[in-house]
Amino acid sequence: MPAKPFPVNALVRFVLLGCCSLGAMPALAVEKSPASAPTLQELKTEGARQSKYLHPTSRSTPTETPEADLATFQETIAPILEASCIDCHNDDNTEGNISIESLDPNLLEGDDVDWWVEVLAVLNNGEMPPPEDMEMDDADRRTIVEWLSGEVQTASMFRRATGGHSSFRRLTRYETNYALQDLLGLPNQFAGDLPPEAHSDDGFQNSSEMLHMSVKQLETYQTLARQALRRAIALEERPAPLHWSISMRDASQIDWKQQQASVDQAAEKLKDDPEKQRAKIEEMRASFLRPTNQTHYRNLKTGANVPTSWAYQGARYSFAPEEAPTVMPPDFDHVAILPGARSRRLIVELGNQIPDTGVMRVRVRAARVLKDGQAADSFPPSLQLEFGWRASNEGRADMRVSDADIPITATVDAPEIYEFEFQLGDIYPRNSVRKTSPMGKMPNPSEYIRFVNSSVSDQAVQIDHVEIVAPVITQWPPESHTRIFFDSPHRENETRYVSEVLAAFMRKAWRRPPTPEELRRKEQLFRTLRPHCGSMEEAVLEVLSTVLASPHFLYVVRTKSPSTDSDSQTAMASSPKLTPHELATRLSLFLWCSIPDDELLTLASTGALQEPDVLREQVQRMLADPKSRRLSEQFVHQWLDMQLLDFLNIKETTPRLNTPLKEAMQEEPIAFFHELLQQDESVLQFIHAEFAMLNERLARHYGWNTVHGNHFRRVPIGSDPRRGGLLTQAGLLAMNSAGADSHPLKRGVWLLESILNDPPPPPPPAVPEIDLADPRIAEMTLIERMADHRNHPACMSCHSKIDPWGIAFENYDSVGRWRTKINDKPVVASATLFNQQELAGIDGLKRYLLSERQDQFVRALVHKLATYGLGRPLTFADHAHIDQITAEVRKRGDGLSTMVQQVATSDLFQSN
User: Tell me: the pLDDT tens digits for 661-671?
Assistant: First the structure.
């Protein structure tokens, strides 16, 4: 029978809980844990010790075709259900639209397996029977859970062996980008023109059900492939670099002249009154010596300051390049000062001759400037680099091009040189008139770089000289060229050499060796193109572009497997295994979001990759590689639905966020995940941790002033439940807010979907809207409005399950800051779950998750990782495998790296 999606639509759980949850209402008092209560760290340990996965209840999987255990059901299970459930869920009284009386107990072949899985879930979580109606005896509950667990496990394995799965899909935009980077050895961003992917119901962009391709998309991929190869292969002569060498004495000339002009103007105005003239000029010159919070130039000989200015009209601030480099002079008497704490900027305009592509290197001699009273060992300021242009009143762009902020540690008496490098080809948009409009005319064709003092603290940066070169060329042909056109003893034999080049490239791009017929066709294409191309390299480029436009590169291709006879004695055997090269591809897409490297391909070619010890070693090697950062970035972003944060309009938040703080919020969950991954720390740290990954901006947002600098680092924060883990991170709270205030419903839904993998149902069609025009409702707090909304019969069933989870976050405002009052009223952050469990704020929420929901959370994360790793939705047929992986993770201490390792080495991962 075809596999059904798993977990089933949340409506199943909704109708199970339906009428039995109507009485659950949020409590009004804010409760605190008693002093004698165990700590959160102790709850982690105790909750792990009580895990059901340490004491499996499922029966062993038979080696031959199994049969449903209907005898036990009739003798033992049915009487318990009759006593505890049938009164409310029978053919005549189907509360929640379910009749347990009519469910087929044959999970292997029956049609009600999804319902039984949900029955198992609500029994495990204590959600059924409703505590206010009836208490089920612990022994009876255990009996049902053990029987159902065994039947679900066996049925899942059976259906996996007899069903089919499809992980056939194209590469995502980010996978395509990383694959081209690794294949060509270039750091460029190649996929900017590709459309963004949609998200599946599970929240992932790499799901096979979403990744199809239109004819228009295929044309875009073909264009992209040729553009990428043209960046990698050197078809032209070595370009001549351009050089700029700009002192602050030269950069400040316009501003000094303008300042002197203002003095001259005042002198002219008062020329008939020498006394007033002298006083005015002295007053002006004294003002030039006073400190300013604006970016300014300083004459070190006189101490005079002048604010920097810049205007795009006429390009009069631009500097022309030179063909030869000049030596940066050791001495200087003019500097630019960029004060701290306000993102002050300094523009250096470079004209219209900046190359289209290649690396631009910017070297700046700089130092930190201590204010009076600042200690010499205080944390240094930092510098960012931006690239921009302004063609007219309507056309302007400013883009950050520095990968990371550079701390400026040098002192003013010993300034040092700091260096930035970036790819010009990745800057988009460029000034569209830079090649058509002449310098000095409008629209202005000039472009500039911009230095930014990105410090949070009030510490200035001093710059005295800037050197720029573009393009930077360290070897010719470049390494990307020689990676494709490698040395060979057959280099002089063009036919044989091209065959070697094509075979090597196809092996890497297609993640397997090409067949002789595939290689022959590419060789024939080269012979056809060669007479029409100026060089062998140009003809090879055209052939390689077809390699990159092939489905063998663009798609995750599976070898067709023979069908399985569901009636044979081998029905319980594993699903067909991936071939070694398919396994290498799946592994590299999972851990690196890219294609396999040479080591993986070599192990795949020898068959060694499928050996358990070798596979484990490769997973460890790949997680230790810097490219594993991609897993952290992509998985976390999709798992936690962080596109909500990407689209958060900082201008509409109250209080208003700024861009650097939002960027820090976006980085925090990724940095936290990566830290746990690299240290193999327990995934329970996601619920609560006694450390955080912070930079200065985020720490200040949380009320801590002991963290300095813009880089993220591990910071101990103690046992305070208000911070630590994912649930209390500002960005995740802000993205689930209403902009001006918190939003318990959004936060509750997010926790259920992303953290517990237990999404609530969609609202019924007859849900009434909250009437804000009603004066009585307009005067209510948000919590009071939600309670009023719940009083509607169509709303209560759903909201009673969601609202308490979200209300537990009410101590956090719209941007994730801690609060104790809302409009001078005490915060209501305590609520009662549908099972009468009290959640007393964030501390109560964390305690409940760690004491009662550890297994659910760990399994949910395994489910999410496996969904992402396989690139397809999971179905009921995968249920047993997810349980097996979860059990191994729990037995091994819940480490995040351990979890990734268990997923990647599982039978589930190695089969279709």
Answer: 999 999 999 99
